[in-house]
Write a structure and sequence with these properties.
Radius of gyration: 20 Å
Helix content: under 10%
Shape: elongated
Order of helices and strands: EEEEEEEEEH
Strand order of the largest sheet: 1-2-3
Number of domains: 2
Number of helices: 1
Oligomer: single chain
Structural class: mainly beta
Largest sheet: 3 strands, antiparallel
C-alpha cells in the first residue's frame, strides 16, 4: 500500500449524515507523491440489505420507496431491495432479521 499524507481534515456537515473535507497527497504508482488534492467523504453509517426470495412462487420481494435525490430526474420512486441502517452495537444479521 502506498503512503498517504493528510494535510488538513475538517467536518463540514455533522447531521444525520456527516461530510468531511480532506486535503491530502497520496503515493502514485510511480512512487512520487501526488499534488495536493481535495476530497469529500460522505458517512451515513453501516447498513444492511436483504434479498428476499419466496421459494413457493419463485419470486423476489422488492420495495418501492420515495427517495428525494431521484426526484430531480424522475418520479422520485425507486424499486430496491429491503434495506436499513445498522444501529450501534448491532450485528448485520440482527438488523437484517428486523427488516423482514
Amino acid at each position: 500500500m502506498g503512503k498517504v499524507q493528510i494535510e488538513k481534515k475538517k467536518r463540514i456537515l455533522d447531521d444525520f449524515f456527516k461530510v468531511e473535507e480532506v486535503h491530502l497527497r497520496y503515493e502514485r504508482f510511480d512512487g512520487q507523491m501526488s499534488p495536493l488534492v481535495r476530497r469529500l467523504t460522505f458517512e451515513r453509517g453501516d447498513s444492511v440489505a436483504v434479498l428476499i426470495f419466496n421459494p413457493k412462487s419463485h419470486r423476489i420481494l422488492l420495495v418501492n420507496q420515495f427517495k428525494y435525490p431521484t426526484y430531480e430526474k424522475g418520479p422520485g420512486w425507486i424499486t430496491e431491495t429491503v434495506a436499513g441502517m445498522i444501529e450501534k452495537n448491532e450485528s448485520p444479521q440482527s438488523a437484517a432479521r428486523l427488516l423482514y
